[in-house]
Amino acid sequence: MKRIQSSLNTSSPDFRANMAHNRQIVRAFRDKQEAARHDRPARDYERLERQGKMPMRKRIEMLLDPATPFLELSSLAANRAYGGESPSASSITGIGVVSGREVLIRADDPSVKGGAWYPLTTKKIVRALDIAIENRLPVIHLCDSAGGFLPLQSELFPDKYMGGRIFRNQCTLSKMGVKQLALVFGHCTAGGAYIPGLSDYSVIVRGTGAVFLGGPPLVKAATGEEVSVEELGGAEMHTSVSGTCDYPARDEPDAIRIGREIVAQWDRPKKWNCQWETPEDPAYDPEELYGIIPRDIKKQFDMREVIARIVDGSRFHEYQPNYGTTLVCGFANIWGWKVGILGNNGVLFNDSSLKAAHFMELCNQNDTPLVFLQNITGFMIGREYERRGITKDGAKMIMAQVGSHVPKFTVMCNGSFGAGNYGMCGRAFDGRVLFTWPNHQIGVMGGEQAANTLAEVKANQIRRNGGDVNEDVLRAIREETLKAYEDQVSAYYSTSELWDDGIIDPVDTRNALGLAISASLNAPLGDRGYGVFRV
Description:
The chain is of the alpha/beta class and 535 residues long. The chain is built from 21 helices and 15 strands.
């Protein structure tokens, strides 16, 4: 494959201004991530220490194989919710290596209200287990939760994709033969008791671990019975009387040791045979990505320059380079794995939509995973393009994407607006993972477009009623809309609501994709086949 010849002028004032701007954005992201990971009141860490407990990140560090990567997901979930009192949605999820096996790890955070689950905590857990199902990844649950956060129980309990979905997903994993291990470090209360109950293996720590549907206060309130934590659901009772748990551990390091031994007995899944070559670092410095992304989200940039700093050797075989030029398509390798890349270089026209559909068909024919690099304002609109069939051609692109049997991965590199989000494998379209960069924005349309559209609608309404259009009223509508959009289209709002699988530093994109692609190969390819293409 030919190496991409970069035309980037790294000495230009524009590049340097972009570099400074985006470095500042990434620093702010890193600061927010660090705070979500570690900033807790001293009393909460002191309480854990008195109880003989480690912080959850220390538990994960001890569980993982030494010197292996951990792909953390949704590190800034709930950053805009609950007044900031549920950092990272009170949990950690991610993909790592334990005893030589790729696994999904899910950990409660006992430093936040005893590990209680907020609504976004349950949404995060459900998403993590969805990823385990899609990629046939064994799951290790690090359990230490007081159960659902009762003041928000109405948002936790009834909805299909909340609490009960966790246990449905556990049952689905078991039905598929995907293994689960629960390490019970603290209380597993109410619905949380089903985590170890539905796991294949469970280890419980003496003195601090406990499993019960209702804790001692609830038992007393409901039945009048007075019972201690240990009698009701402690390690000795569950490993010698009820059989709910399998192994007692003397402390947390012992539980982790036993857990690693259990995982070491598991078979190693056979990955499907994706094409692979010896990995090669990009020929261009990934740090230059900071200088490529414009300061103004409306300004276009060449996605080839991004590709050159992500793929092996910066080598790229571009498909139909002279046709449908607002979409770049081609083959490359990421950490050795062969992938087909679709990257936006402008609005999607009829030709670029058809090019995308055909390229995805080729990737499916060749069992090549798809990587979508989004910077999209949508499909082209207007009378001329509707007459040419832009809706029909866009539908072909969406149909080909949904019908793909190969794994799909999405990175939101800049803007993601309108139905272009759909064609480029947005959140609703079952990509194995979807990452965003901290400069990313997402919405039905851009803020200025929305503001002008609403102002035009209001003006037409006034005219229909026989009134005069007041420019001050229209200006107020525009300003109000823009203000709302500035907040709601931001990457932090999106990731807070778990509309993605986490914000990542652009320079980490290659590594994040490499880990995600490797994990995806544990699941067999889906069935081939498409729906109806409207010709």
